[in-house]
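Please predict the structure of the following assembly.
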Amino acid sequence: MRVLIPSQLQDYTRNESQVEARGGTVGEILDDLDRRFPGIRFRIIDEQDRIRRHLRVFINEEQTHALETPLKPDDRLIILGALSGG
Amino acid sequence: MRKTIRRRTRRSSSLRPGRKAGARSATVAMALLIGSRKGAFILHAGPGRRDWRTVGPHFLGHAVHHIVLDPRDGRTLLCTAHAGHLGPTLFRSTDRGKSWQESKKPPAFAKAPEGETGRSVDHVFWLAPGHASEPGAWYAGTSPQGLFRSEDGGVTWEGVAGFNAHPKRPAWCGDGQQAAPDGATLHSIIVDPRDPKHLYIGLSSGGVFESTDGGRDWAPINRGCRADFIPVPDPEYGHDVHCMRLHPLAPDRLYQQNHCGIYRMDRAESRWVRIGERMPKKIGDIGFPLALHPRDPDTMWVFPMDGSTVWPRVSPGGKPAVYVSHNGGGSWRRQDRGLPVNQGWFTVKRQAMCADRHDPAGVYFGTTGGELWASTNEGEKWNCLVRHLPEIYSVETAVFA
């Protein structure tokens, strides 16, 4: 699955704005990203498994707030920095 | 970002025109470590503590609340980092900040049981190396108030459950309304130089707490300290410690700059005494930082700020000055030579004042306006080393091995 990485996190992805990841839910995708780019998950998700307040996660064009949200193989996961967080 | 990071650091030119940056770095050992709202900077000193050279910013855009060198090895730098969008983390360097590695397991609270609301670390606020007999041990204080310990030089961190899960912690820490503007914090982590299991911490708010068993249990020690924002006379906890210090040559004495004045506690009495009452009345004894002399436990510096009316927290009357005491707070003397004589509305945060180990000692403070001021003669005369930095959060001295 294609994942769009915001500028705030591209230090982890070697400056790549799009990466591939595997998983059937939002949480599994983030776990896979963390295996390949260690540390990235904790910058996105807090220790209570909540998406951090100034990051937004979309499945295609729909925002999601839950790691359990299922994904289809042709979905695209988009991570964006919220306007209030800079 | 757990790989080595180099591109985040930019090097500035020397503070003296015409000198090549980096030309003397190999022979310079002393430095000032500056945490700011927009990144970290390292100022390397030339001989005689002149000719300072600024390197940075490291982690541009990240709020860096504290950057500290391990005095036990003279090599390991730890640096907190918190970007507006991202979760908080820590970086470490063993080459004077040339490259950084991210902590593999930054401080984080325990996951709450199903159905309960758990806490999350907003930012790491305070770093303290552990006892000399425990190489690699560090403590970290966070916002909201949490205490964490690393035993591997800052690579991985675990919560100190004796505090973080203490049944009285919610009462001690309050509901968040009594928090500092940037959030409630745990700070002023002090390890007794005689005993690694004897710890002190300061909570804003909450007060001063002590553990004698390595952090398994804690008790408040706030008797005698005012808390004029609580309608209870001499409360057991709930105070607002701004900065607490202990001198290794007098480990049975604590000093603190509090929201309600400057205090001293001699442990034999275990009662805070307001030594700030000896300050001039028109100046008052409200401020954030307190710095100790490297060799004289009776000498300390404070930076008074206006705590009247709506708590402006700037130099009283726009005339910035440091005040020094040479007798444990029995009397105070103004030190303002070299500082602006008027229209100087300085704010100095609790981590932004320190002293070096030279003789005479150097004293340093950073302002929220991005100026770093230094005295190489124990506060008698001040010079501005750097201007135009971001809001300065912390200033620490470092002597690299």
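Chain A touches chain B at residues 6, 8-9, 11-12, 38-40, 42-50, 52, 54-55, 81-82, 85-86 (CB under 8 Å). The first strand of chain A starts at residue 2 and ends at 4.
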